[in-house]
Amino acid sequence: MSHSQAAAIFNKDEKKVNWHDKALWFVRHKRDKAAHSVTGWEALRNLGQGIKAHTLSNLDNYLIQFEENALKNGVQVHWAKNADEHNKIVHSILKAHNAKKVVKSKSMLTEECHLNPFLEADGIEVIDTDLGERIVQLAKEPPSHIVLPAIHKTKEDVDALFQEHLGTKPCAGDPQYLTGEARKHLREKFVNADAAITGVNFAIADTGGFVVCTNEGNADMGAHLAPVHIACMGIEKIIPKQEHLGVFLRLLGRSATGQHITTFSSHFRKPREGAKMHIVIVDNGRTEQLSRPDFRASLQCIRCGACMNTCPIYRRSGGHSYDATIPGPIGSILSPGKDLTKHSTLPFASTLCGSCSDVCPVKIDIHTQLYKWRQIITKEVPQPFVKKSSMKFMGTMFAKPATFEKVGKAARWSLRNLPKGVINSKPNVWGNARDLPSGPEESFDEWYKKRKKDE
Amino acid sequence: MKVGLFIPCYINQLYPQVGKATLELLEKLNVDVVYPSGQTCCGQPMANSGYENESVGACTHFVNNFKTFDYIVTPSGSCAYHVKKHFDVIPQTEDVINVRNNVYELCDFILNVLKIKDVGASFPYKVGIHKSCHGLRGLRLGSCSEKVTPEYSYIGELLAEVTGTEIIKLSREDECCGFGGTFAVAEEAISVKMGKDRVQDHLDHGAEVITATDTSCLMHLEGLITRNKQPLKVLHIAEILNSVN
After folding, report:
1. Which of A310, A317, A411 has the CB atom closest to B146's CB atom?
2. pTM score, whole prediction
């Protein structure tokens, strides 16, 4: 389904759209306040962008340095070329430890690799422990936002889900009761877990350590209790030095939710005594994206979700309309790199308003990349005949002033003389909800010529 | 200083009054302005739709029309931005580079080239400014709410000097209206919803008129206002700056 079709379905419930839009705008507004409270915010963005761009240009060296240091710390390091390899590696580690119950802290990478169904097929229980993630897991849905996975659900929706799956009492969506019940349910899962899987927000090359950011402490709870900790990271998560961390932690929390810093920034470096720690480093199409000069900056992304919150289209179409692990503006430049045909409508789901690029903490030129994908998609993915031929026609018309004048004259005449019912009939999508301007008798060009004659 | 007036295709055909207001205003400000006849389009509709190659003819024609001018002024931030940003599709001759460097959106030109703030207009109404995105974040005609920079707005500075005008504050100062060229048709549901919300923001704050640096945004908003019979008017900023009551 194209983005526009999915968005049209989402828009049938206008109240829900309004609610979704306001909820995300609230987060965007909080982000503005938090950003404005930092002296030198724009300098910080420049610094973040600079560090990331430098890292991407030297990615091979930093990855090798990271591996060396992680190994020295007693961590086992694995390399996965793609999603399948990643899933198999995680599975084999779990098998080796006879782990049947896994608690997972939110990781978009494992979502991207579809790890859960892979493990579940072998009878392994995987519990997502971020509350939002747990909610969508119970609803058998993918996250609709990378930071606020269940933002599309109301508290009443959660009430119904918890009654069905956790046996809670009806509470008319009382958030305190619902979170209390979720807490009890998750504590039980943490205590009994055989292994913990976390994502990685930042991996530090010069120490071999990594940082996981959560607001609920669920990564800590998992990793501190289970005998095995598997951390899964994309190759782009590397930063060169420990001292760079401050730049990104300051940018991340503020951009994501308007917090000064995420509640938990958990630093991991080596396995605790008697426990095991594994890191799986995953490519899964990233090297290919890195090889595209126009799109390589998309790998600078620190997954704060600010571009989603600010995007007027995302706010009104919901995350699921993007049909991709990473939705929204950043997703719309990442996804076509993975499957151009499947995601061919995403770069067009934008007015190119540029808000995403200006809000991005690491200054990814998102809207410029959307424009560039459009040029590639029309060449490589078959386009509707009407679009293709009308663009060709317009191209010819705008190259010839005489043709433009004739077509303009006919269009103005039609707007003035044809009945509204004919003008706004089906082929004119514009006319479903909007009036067209009334066609003036005279174009500016005609008026100017006359005026010159009269002089 | 020889100035060429660039009238975008849709203004030429559908909103000639915006072109007239722009021309009259520039003349009032003693600018030596010429409108090269036979203009078509800057090529944006094709390029933004992913058919940059189909825009080559329009771009070449554009450069031929305007290569002899010191400045090219247009009542459209979006079209000026397109010429500046996206004319890489044709060979970068000296003429092309000059045209790209010299193209100005109207408010930007008045304020920063002519160095005029008060154009002597009078317009006693409550006006909401819709900050059209391509001008705002493309040409930086004003500060945008995402960035932590000093606040400014070219259109706001000019409007503030207009006698009788009360500028109203909006809840969302620089949210997109949802026009976006072919986006308005390809993503109809979202486009219409965005436009409705934009209109509502103005109504909620008591605006009588919505103005902008781009008629394309206004065409979309006007289409909704007319269809829904709402008590609002749209006027391009050139029409307000050219009015004397």
Report:
1. A310
2. 0.96
